[in-house]
Amino acid sequence: MTGTSTLLIVVGLFLVGGIISFAKQQMPKGLIVLLSIGAAMCLVAGVLRLEVWN
Q: Which of 2, 17, 34, 44 has its CA 20 to 30 A from that of 26?
């Protein structure tokens, strides 16, 4: 597990928390979708960068 993969996963989880918070505050749906895309990209990139695949 490298530092980059850890950082990407942490940022992705932080964005997921933002999605939950923004949904509770009834923020615009476009903003929630944008955060969802960013969180998904961070989490997928972090998981793919894990060195358990070798």
A: 44
pLDDT tens string 22-53: 999 999 999 999 999 999 999 999 999 887 76
Give the span between the Cα atoms of 19 and 32, in whole angstroms.
6
Of 17, 18, 8, 19, the residue nearest 43 (C-alpha): 8
CA dihedral sign, ordered 19, 33, 6, 3: negative
Q: Taking every pair of C-alpha atoms in the chain, what is the biggest distance, in angstroms?
A: 43
pTM: 0.85
